[in-house]
Amino acid sequence: MKTLKLRDGSTVTFDGMQAHVVSGATKITLDGAISRAIADMQLDADGAVFFQRQLEHIKAKSYDVRYAELKARMLFPVSNDGGPGVTTITYRTYDQAGAAKIINAYADDLPRADVAGKETTIPVRSVGISYGYNLDEIQSSQLTGAALDQRRANAARRSNEQVVNDVAYFGDATSGMPGLFDNPNIPTGAVVNPGSGTEWVNKTPEQILFDINDLFADIFETTKMVESGNTLLLPPSQWSFIMATARSANSDTTIAQYVANNSPFLNSIDDIIAVNELVAANNPLVATDAMVAYDRNPDKLQLEIPVELEMLPIQQRGLEFIVPGRSRLAGLNIYYPLSLAIGTGI
Asked: Which of 107, 193, 279, 308 has the highest CB neighbour number within 10 Å of its CB?
């Protein structure tokens, strides 16, 4: 057992495999790679503890960062069911079959009611990312007292969130993870062309209102009132247009306000949300800008993330210390595709 004294009065004990820092009643166990760096004399005890504390601070702060433009987590209910070891997620949908009928008193051929079930299985895949610092950066940071660069951890976390976001909207054909726009069972079609084109910039407020109401009515009527949407997603430019354009020339109510106040499907104007991925230029699966009406309800769809991003123990590679990260993702599970509708051409 080897014991080292730090400048702040705390001590480091090293048992050949792991280093432990004791300061008063507090005991910190250093990551394996940092412990080995002490043994290999690449870091002194003070430098190792400084690096460990810096990393703990950096990891904690990276989890506080939110990315407003990556909205998948906000728009689709997230499920963390399954846990680390799951490799597939299977869900079941059921439909009742059979109908009662009027019979006579001696009938022996009573109609049969039953339930038909269908299983769907989607794969769970790992998403990997890492960041790191080299020995020169660690020693320079210790010497000057400056914090290590937080932006690397933030960039790693954002990269992971970008993958989650992209898969939620577009799926991943290579791995088989499903998304919103690659689901073949969601009703999709172009909005009506009244003669001036389908784009909203060329339509009157009345024609835009018709497009919105028609999309929600499609869900409601197609499913015989079983399903109804409660959220409307729009490309940013169309969202801005209806938020700022008057319902009519002599009205002080915008198109968006009129929809929110009069639609039987939306509860408030906050249910109309701008989304970058609905712009054709940002979406490889649509040729024109699109809007989506859907029921934002975990019983209808869920974004499956069995394991959230976890930053793993540090690994040393040469003169660099790498912090690897991993999450587990299964895509957007849509249990009831008819609870959504996509309108294109807006």
From this structure: 279
Instruction: Return all residues near 32 (Cβ < 8 A) that are at least 6 apart.
Output: 17, 18, 313, 314
Global pTM value: 0.77
What domains are there in the chain, each with its CATH number? Answer: 1-64 (no CATH), 188-300+338-344 (3.30.2320)
Burial of 183 (0-12, 13-18, 19+ CB in 10 A): middle
CA dist 62 and 308 (Å) reads 13
**Tens-digit pLDDT profile for residues 30-86:** 666 666 665 555 666 666 666 666 666 666 665 555 555 789 999 999 999 888 888
Question: What totals of helices (H) and strands (E) does the chain contain, helices first?
Answer: 8, 18
Map tokens 């039987």 to a residue.
Answer: 264
**How many residues in the chain?**
346
| Rounded Cα distance, 151 and 172, in Å | 28
Mean pLDDT value across residues 278-291: 97
